[in-house]
What we know:
Blueprint: H1 2-31, H2 33-38, E1 45-48, E2 51-54, E3 59-70, E4 76-89, E5 97-113, H3 136-142, H4 146-149, E6 159-162, E7 165-175, E8 178-194, E9 199-211, E10 224-236, E11 249-259, E12 264-268, E13 275-290, E14 293-294, E15 299-311, E16 314-326, E17 334-347, E18 355-366, E19 369-370, E20 381-391, E21 407-423, E22 426-442, E23 445-461, E24 466-469, E25 472-482, E26 492-504, E27 510-521, H5 523-529, H6 538-543, E28 546-557, E29 560-570, E30 573-582, E31 585-594, E32 597-604, E33 607-613, H7 616-620
Amino acid sequence: MARQNTKxxxxxxxxxxxxxxxxxxxxxxFSGGAEKLISWxxxxxxxxxxxxxxxxxxxxxxxxxxxNSTTVRGNRFGLRVDSGSVSLSLTPLINRTVNIRNAQxxxxxxxxxxxxxxxxxxxxxxxxxxxxxxxxxxxxSRQTPDELTAQDPAKRPWTIRxxxxxxxxxxxxxxxxxxxxxDGRLDALTxxxxxxxxxxxxxxxxxxMAVGDPSQSQNSPRILQISADLSIAPxxxxxxxxxxxxxxxxxxxxxxxxxxxxxxxxxxxDGLYNFGVFGAGxxxxxxxxxxxxxxxxxxxxxxxxxFQTTFLNLEASGSGGIxxxxxxxxxHPVQLRVMIDDFxxxxxxxxxxxxxxxxxxASVRAxxxxxxxxxxxxxxxxxxxxxxxxxxxxxxxxxxxxxxSGLKFLSGTGLLRGGMSLNRGTATGSITLAGxxxxxxxxxxxxxxAFELSANLTEGDYDRKTYRLQDTALQLHDTQLVTSGRxxxxxxxxxxxxxxxxxxxxxxxxxxxxxxxxxxDVEPLIxxxxxxxxxxxxxDKMLNVxxxxxxLIAHTKDDxxxxxPIFIDSRGLEVxxxxxxxxxxxxxxxxxxxxxVSANVEIVDSKVKFKGLGGRHKVLQQVxxxxxxx
Length: 630
C-alpha cells in the first residue's frame, strides 16, 4: 500500500509539473525573462525573439529569433530564423550540457566573422577566400592556445550535443567577406563538441544552396548550385586550430553554375609559389575529401571572361579559366592548369601591365594535395609558359639594366616567349626575348639595334633569383652607333654566346660568366673608344678588321662590372684588355696589335689615353689571361 501511495504521489508531482510548466515557461518567454536569463552575459551571448511559446518541457516554438555570440578569441557568430522549433533536454543543463535532439528552421540567415588577429587559412575550394600575402608559418605561430590556457581553469566548459538539425529557405550565409544569397537547405546536422577548445566531432552535415536570383529556374546556368556532405573526425580543437583542423574533414563539396564572385582562391598560398585565382564565371567542381586530402574523383572547371591569376611574383588577367582533376591512376594524380588568352601581365606591386599577349599557362602536377599542408612535395612540379608576350614599351625594363653598364633604353618594343618549371624552389626553363626598333644610350653614345636573347636556365634558386646559364645566346643585328661626330652603317651584327655563367634576375640584373664573341667587324668598338666628337679617320678604316672572334669573362661585384680578360685573336688582330665599369665611368687597360703594329692605351674615367707603342707585357701584368685556360 505504501508503495502504491508513493507512486501516486510521484505521478501527481509529474502531472503537476506538466500542468504548471506551460504557465511558468510561457510567462518567462512572453515577459522577456527568458531573454534576460539567456543573455546575462551580453558580451558573449545575446538571444531575442518576436514571439515564442512552449507546452511540453524542452520543446519550443519561436518566431523572429536572433542570436549573436562572441567567442573568447573574438570570432563572431550570428543567426536569424523567421520561424522554427527546437527540442532541448532541460535536465542536462544542470551539468553544463546543451542537448538538442531536434531543431527545424524556416527562413534562415547565418553569418560568421573571424577576428582579424585570428585569421586562418580556410578551405581552398570554390567556397574559400584567402590572403596570399600572409605567410602560413606566421599564421601557425599565432594559432596558439595561450588565450585559452590563460583563462580561469576553475570554469568548466560546456558540452554541446546536436542531432537532427535541419532548415529550409536559407536566404543568406556570410563567412567573413564572402556572402551567398539564394535559397538553401540543411538536411541534417549531427555534431558534438566541448567549448574552450575541447573535443569536437561532426558525424553528419548535409547542406545545399542555390545562389542567385530566386526568379530564375533552378536549372539555369545563372544559378549556382552548392552542396556539401561532410564529417569531422573526433579531435581536440585546442590542438588543431587553423588549417590543421582540415586534416579531420572528409566528404564531398560540389558547385555548379555561375559564380558572380569567385573570391580569392590560393591553391599554393605560400610565399614561394603564391599560386591563386580569382574572378567571376561558370564553375563545375567536385571536391572529394578524405581526412583533409583531396582524393580521386575530384575535379574543377572554371571559365571566366574576367579572369585573374597570381603565381610567383606575377599577376595576370584576361579571358581564361581553370582545369583540375585528381586521378589516382595517373603518374601525377593531382593536376591543375590555369589558361589565359589575351592576357595582361604585371609584376610585383606594379599596377600597370607591361606585357600583353596570348596563351599563358600555369600548371601544377603533384602526387597529392593536402588542405592542411599546401606545399609541393619533392615529386611535384609547378610551371608556367608564355606562348607570346608583347612588350609595347621596353623602357619599363630599364630597372633591369645596371647603372654600371651605362646602358639605358630610350624606345622600342619586344616579343617574349618561354617559361619556367620549379620543383621545391629549384628552377629550370628557357626564355626567348626579341627586341626591335630599339634605341639605347651607352654613356654618351646612342645605339640603334634589334636583338634576340635565348636564355637556358638551369639549377636555379628561385628564392635567391639566381640561375646557371648554359648555351645562352645574345644576337645583335641591324645595329648602328651614333655620336655627335659620326654615324656607323646600320647593318652591323654580333653574337655573344655564354658557355657557362650565372644570372641574378633582379633589379638590376647581373650576369657573370664566360662568353665567346663573334662580330662582323670592330667598327662600333673603335667608335666607342674614340672621342665621340671626332669623325671617322683613315686610321679607323685601316683598323676595322672583319669577321672577328674572341672571348671575355664578366664578373659583377658591388657597384662595378669587371670584364677581365677581353681577348681577341682573329684575322691578324690581337686585343688584350681589362675594363671595369662603374656608375658614370669606365677604367682599364688595352693592348692591340694589327699587321705588326701594336700599342697600348689606358682608360681613365671613360677617357682613352695613349701610353705608347708595344706594351703587351705591361698590359698582360694587369689582365687575368690565365682565367681562359680553365
